[in-house]
Amino acid sequence: MKHTEPAECAATTVGTDELIDALTQLGRRQRVAAERMARELGWPRAGLSVLRMLGCSGPASLSDIAAALEVDVSVASRQVGALVDAGYVVRTIDPEDRRIRTIAITDSGRALVVRSREQFGQIAARAFATWSDDDIAAAVTQLRRLSEAIGAPEDLSPHQNVSRN
After folding, report:
1. C-alpha angle 75/63/140, rounded to 5°?
2. What are phi and psi for residue 92, nearest 5 degrees?
3. What are phi and psi of 60, to 5 degrees?
4. Cα separation of 43 and 79, whole Å?
5. DSSP string spanning 123-137?
6. CB 61 within 8 A of CB 68
7. What are 93's strand-pairing partners?
8. Does any domain span residue 7?
9. What angle do CA 131, 137, 138 make, to 5 degrees?
10. 165 located within any domain
């Protein structure tokens, strides 16, 4: 059966609609690749994000983890809880402020991060085998530019004035 789009879904603004479609497709493909990698590693995709963050930045509070991953504290708490149960992170009490619990990555958590980076590196090497270093550098620049343009979710209020260049 052929899928047809309702009139309101048809692209009408050249450029902007195409950009949104491309970002949507990129998001889907990135999610599928991340889910496949997490499945092969035997760990939920969200848990890998927490581990990678802690592996790069070092110990952090739960609120810092939530902020860095742009998720609600309750979401970060569930992810950290699962990681604690699996032995990939530990909760410690901050020696300077005993009210704060700090989450730190364990050796087994670091090993999982290394395996995930190796696996992602292999996937990326295959996906971008025909790209030059300049192509990759240009893509990185444009993706970072896109991320900045989109901004944080709270920056996207429909009531803000939007200027178009």
Report:
1. 80
2. -130, 160
3. -150, 160
4. 11
5. HHHHHTTT--HHHHH
6. no
7. 101
8. no
9. 90
10. no
DSSP 60: E
Q: What is the tens place of the pLDDT at every residue in 43-94?
A: 767 788 899 999 999 999 999 999 998 899 999 999 999 999 999 999 998 7
101 occurs within a structural domain: yes
Please answer whether residues 116 and 41 qualify as being in contact, where contact means their C-beta atoms are separated by less than 8 angstroms. Answer: yes
Alpha-carbon dihedral sign for residues 100, 102, 103, 107: negative
Q: H helices then E strands: how many in the chain? A: 6, 3
Range of the domain at 39: 14-150
One-letter amino acid identity for 48? L
What average pLDDT does the chain have? 83
Identity of the residue numbered 71? V
pLDDT, residue 34, reads 80
pTM: 0.68
